[in-house]
Amino acid sequence: PPQGNYQAGLWWDYEHQDEWLITPTFNCPPMAYLTVDAYVYRGSIYNDHYYIKVSTDNGTNWTILYDATAATGGWNYYVSPIYLNMEAYGGQQIKIAFQADDPPSNDGLWYCWFIDNLYIGNAVQGVKFAGSDLLSSRSKVAGEKVSSEIVVAPYPSREAIEGKRELPTVLKDKITTPTRSERSLQGYKVWRLTSGNETQPDTWTLLTTQLITTLATVDSAWTALPNGSYRWAVKAVYTANVTSVASFSNVLNKETQMGNIVGFVRKQNNQPIAGATVTAGGISATTNSAGAYSLALSIGTYSVTASAAGYQPRTIDGVVVLPNQNTTLNFVLDPVANEDEYLPAVSTELIGNYPNPFNPETTIAYSIKDRCKVHLEVYNLKGQLVRTLVNEEKANGHYKAVFNAKDEKGNTLSSGIYFYRLQAGTNQYISRAEVNSALFVFYIGFLLVQK
To answer: What is the 3-state secondary structure (H, E, C) of 117-174?
Structure first.
């Protein structure tokens, strides 16, 4: 046996056999399952049957849950526990029976059948019986209470006795009188598995590479798992690395809810930046020719970064992605300092302003070729001066001035048409600007006056 020296079972005989081992009536817990270690032959060709059955009417009728004869794989020497889903019987009064029946020829069973470590329950609640509570009977006619005794099975089947099957070497060393040995609990191992793979331990993922002694552990890889239905298996580990039958958790369905971050990446003059990269949570998207992008992300809060060649990257924190919704996030990127700005200016010119539209300020760029007195001023439609941005001598170079749409006293300008003029030596440049109190939009035209 996998643990200890005691189990329940039956031996084959040449006489007719129809043997039953029946539990008392009990209330099946919700989300329940049944596991049992088995010493049984799977796939008998002699028409004998080794059933696990359930009754919901106190044993009047029985439904087959498992038949070793209908299974495949030959001998199961307690290696793979039988796993049965009992969720359909949750909350009902049921009985479980183990039945072995020979074929119509009534010439007895061909194989012995032992069971051990029977468990019925869920991750929270289990059903327990004393050995004396189980009822054994022949042909379900007369019953007697089960008695406990040590059984030493010298051979696994009638086939081996009659020379039709060679006795496996693994059993030749086990023809000894068993003795109890002391053991102690060493710890626990925990696995994650896909629901439906309870009987395929080779597919389980071990979460605890070292034995744990606490009654809780964390599956740190949960968030990275694909959508699906998962369970966890726990085994107790005893002295000499003897392990218990697995206890399984309830089924947990993982369904990652998704949302989107969408928007545009633009220059300071409101022109799109194509080929920019927007990244959040390890997922990236590239803007199209219109500067648009879309990121599909699981729900949560992200830091989103936009970057493009020739521009300074920008990161916005605390962007919330909601399930099945679009979160709009637009970027305006500042250009990286141009090397030309550090080179001598080859002409005097008013380059223009950016961004456009802007809120709350815009930057006016200009270049000076020869040292001269420079005036940069803003006028209203009446020709009245409302703001002087520059009034000083400038040497050869590239310059910028910030205009925040306020007059000399700090008052916000009203909506309307405004002009800003660059007077540099004998050259004069004028641009027209339309100011909106909510959003300042400059329509720029250039006028060069030679004096």
So the answer is: EEEEECCCCEECCCHHHCEEEECCCEEEECCCCCCCCCCCEHHHHCCCCCCCHHHHCC
Name 367's Cβ contacts closer than 8 Å, sequence gap at least 6.
345, 347, 348, 349, 351, 397, 398, 399
Question: From CA 373, how far away is CA 365, in angstroms rounded?
Answer: 16
**Sequence-distant (≥ 6) Cβ neighbours of residue 16 within 8 angstroms:** 102, 106, 107, 108
Residue 443 is predicted with a pLDDT of: 40
pLDDT in tens, 184-229: 889 999 999 999 999 899 999 999 999 999 999 999 998 888 889 9
The 3-class secondary structure across the chain, one letter per residue, is CCCCCCCEEECCCCCCCEEEEECCCEECCCCCEEEEEEEEEECCCCCCEEEEEEECCCCCCCEEEEEHHHCCCEEEECCCCEEEECHHHCCCEEEEEEEEECCCCCCCCCECEEEEEEEEECCCCEECCCHHHCEEEECCCEEEECCCCCCCCCCCEHHHHCCCCCCCHHHHCCCCCCCCCCCCEEEEEEEEEECCCCCCHHHCEECCCCCECCCCCCCCCHHHCCCEEEEEEEEEEEHHHEECCCEECCCEEECCCEEEEEEEEECCCCCECCCCEEEECCEEEECCCCCEEEEEEECEEEEEEEECCCECCEEEEEEEECCCCEEECCEECCECCCHHHHCCCCCCEEEEEECCCECCCEEEEEEECCCEEEEEEEEECCCCEEEEEEEEEECCEEEEEEECCECCCCCECCCEEEEEEEEECCEEEEEEEEECCCCEECCCCCEEEEC
- Cβ 14 vs Cβ 188: under 8 Å: no
Residues 418 and 433 sit within 8 Å (Cβ to Cβ): yes
Residue listed under structure tokens 């760029």: 365
- Burial call 53-62: b when 16+ CB within 10 Å, e when fewer: bbbbeebeeb
Confidence check: pLDDT of 234 > 80: yes
Q: Give pLDDT tens digits for 390-449.
A: 999 999 988 888 888 889 999 988 877 778 889 998 888 776 555 554 444 444 333 434
When pLDDT is cut at 50, 70 and 90, the band that residue 321 belongs to is very high
The span from the CA of 135 to the CA of 249, in Å, is 30
Whole-angstrom distance, CA of residue 412 vs CA of residue 138: 101
CB 243 within 8 A of CB 236: yes
